[in-house]
Amino acid sequence: MEVITPKRLRLTVKTIRALFFIQFIGVIFLLLLITIVLCIAKIQGAPSLAVPQSTVMYANDGTKIGETHHGQKRFWVNLQDISPFLIEATIAIEDRNFYDHHGFDYKRIAGAFVADLKAMAKVQGASTITQQYARNLFLEHDKTWKRKLAEAFYTIRLEMNFSKESILEGYLNTIYYGHGAYGIEAASRYYFHKHAGELTLAEAAMLAGIPKGPSYYSPYTHFSRAKKRQELILKTMEKVGYITEQEANTAIHEAIKLREHKKEEHANLAPYFQDVVLQEIKEKLQVDEMFIQTKGLQVYTTLDSTLQKIAEETMNKVIAKESDIQIGFAAIDPETGQVKALIGGRDYDKSPFNRAIQAKRQPGSTMKPFLYYTAIENGFTPSTVLKSEPTTFSFNKGQSTYQPSNFHDYYAYDDITLMQALALSDNIYAVKTHLFMGMDKLIETARKLGINSSLKEVPSLALGTSPVNVIEMVNAYGMIANGGHKIEPTFIKRIEDAKGNVLYEFKKESEQILNKQAAFVLTHMMTGMFDEKLNGYTTVTGQKIIDQLTRPYAGKSGTTNADSWMIGFTPQLVAGVWTGYDKGKNIHQVHERMYAKEIWATFMEEALKDQPVKGFQPPEGVIGVNVDPSNGLLAAPGCPVSRLTYYIKGTEPTEYCIDHIDFKDEKQGDEPKINEEKPSIWKKLIPWM
């Protein structure tokens, strides 16, 4: 047993005394600090109510295209003029201990901390009504300790200088309820066409749920979500003791009659584009909707007002007014990914659903350039020949079969080249290539090009059967156009706060994603859809719009029973169009199938009319030779058609076409200048050749 000596005992006592003294000094210091903070808070008085400022959006030329407070609605009503149901519903769901704490609910903070710790993520909030009110009054944006401390100080000032009733009144009169309605009176009038004091229990519970996510819980745009939250609030009110179980159930089953609003004219340019910008602000700054609505941000976007107007005018000119067909359209700068024009539908007021961003549709043959880029990287060339004829493919180790067909069942019943297969959009050639390389290869390339939509590893993927959205397809074509460096769809150049401080600024990507030489070979092949030299068993797919085009373009069209696509580019601009019906209706009218191509051609010509004509410049490592497009061999003097075609150096054909030489005219004893035997330039073991 250890013996404690007098000396050690004296040391232990001294240590205990020292610790006690340190703790005592610490407590005194903490009490002194709290006293100072409270005194300062009392002396400074209540924080002034900051006037909310509009967030303004500008096009790339500096002209204003819209602002968040357009048509805002504000009223101030006394607490006694607000429905008790609304007050109780708000307290129940936001801060049930509101009347018992002094601005901070420590039990709730501890509970939230434990919940977050268990989930290893932010899953539960603990802000009181006073803290939320303080946050609304505080204008800074950054999520730093400085801001948190300042908000805490605002909370103390509010609690020390206002009664609970005054704080609650201020909160209910300034909180955002969506659709431009600030405060409960404005919300009551907007949603139910009545005063805040006239709200029923069901209506009050519905409105109390909106501030958590004004867009997400809007009963106009997401009624089912709003209804579920209303039920949660009513059950919480019952649990707290504000209402009985019968009252809760009655309110849950009460029919909600929302006010009907007359169609509002949108003078702002590009409303679909503006919606995307507002969402981008949230993501880039990690802020909520309330912040965007009230903090006076200056947002400089990538929108080109001229191109946007051309796109909208072209849409209205080409698509018949009586048609119900819809559109998704995007135009981007291929060097930066900056979105210059965007259309998400025919009429924003009738449907704010953005078909260029949110809708996923089958891209059809617009998927083929990704396939053929992959093929070029894996040994194919524009001269590679495969047979175009009706074919049944087996896959999954012979357990499954797939039998695609060409448009109108047209086939060459002979070998065709890759350049011609792309220009004529031959489906048999595409599926053969897809299966020969391995179905995972196309998916790998699509991912490189920024296609994030789900892609099924099936033979029909080569024909675009996995749905994608317009913006990701146009962006992918942009990477082909720029020689293969990475870009992403970009809507915002710069964001400044109300004081002019830069909160975000766009930076151009520089990562090389594709092989430059392969990307250029593909680009030149994509000019083939507008080149009648590639006509074969059918005409090139761009035949009907060739006469409208005055400069070199590369592109690809695509069709399914329900979708019509056209995506194409010059070195300066990429644009893509999808047209189709919203609700599973197929396109039957021939002229409606032409809408996408006509809109694209008209837009590109008008958008570039004042721009210099630029061709596609081959990079080092690429060589151009004249070939006979029907067989891919070097063109001989007798060939009726000769087309300049580009190849990665070392893969260009070295043998000449002899299809058009009449050997009977050769004199006896003379050797023909070209070998008599027709060469085969692609002798891989492909079971369908």
TrEMBL record:
TM annotation in the entry: 20-43
Reaction(s) catalysed by this chain's protein: Preferential cleavage: (Ac)2-L-Lys-D-Ala-|-D-Ala. Also transpeptidation of peptidyl-alanyl moieties that are N-acyl substituents of D-alanine; [GlcNAc-(1->4)-Mur2Ac(oyl-L-Ala-gamma-D-Glu-L-Lys-D-Ala-D-Ala)](n)-di-trans,octa-cis-undecaprenyl diphosphate + beta-D-GlcNAc-(1->4)-Mur2Ac(oyl-L-Ala-gamma-D-Glu-L-Lys-D-Ala-D-Ala)-di-trans,octa-cis-undecaprenyl diphosphate = [GlcNAc-(1->4)-Mur2Ac(oyl-L-Ala-gamma-D-Glu-L-Lys-D-Ala-D-Ala)](n+1)-di-trans,octa-cis-undecaprenyl diphosphate + di-trans,octa-cis-undecaprenyl diphosphate + H(+)
Keywords for the protein's UniProt record, in alphabetical order: Carboxypeptidase, Cell membrane, Cell shape, Cell wall biogenesis/degradation, Glycosyltransferase, Hydrolase, Membrane, Multifunctional enzyme, Peptidoglycan synthesis, Protease, Transferase, Transmembrane, Transmembrane helix
Main location: membrane
Residue ranges that the Swiss-Prot or TrEMBL entry lists as coiled coil: none
Domain Glycosyl transferase family span(s) in chain numbering: 62-237
Listed InterPro entries: Beta-lactam/transpept-like, Glyco_trans_51, Glycosyltr_51/Transpeptidase, Lysozyme-like_dom_sf, PBP_transglycosylase, PCN-bd_Tpept
Gene3D superfamilies: Biosynthetic peptidoglycan transglycosylase-like (1.10.3810.10), DD-peptidase/beta-lactamase superfamily (3.40.710.10)
Protein name listed in UniProt: 1A family penicillin-binding protein
The organism of origin for this protein: Aeribacillus alveayuensis
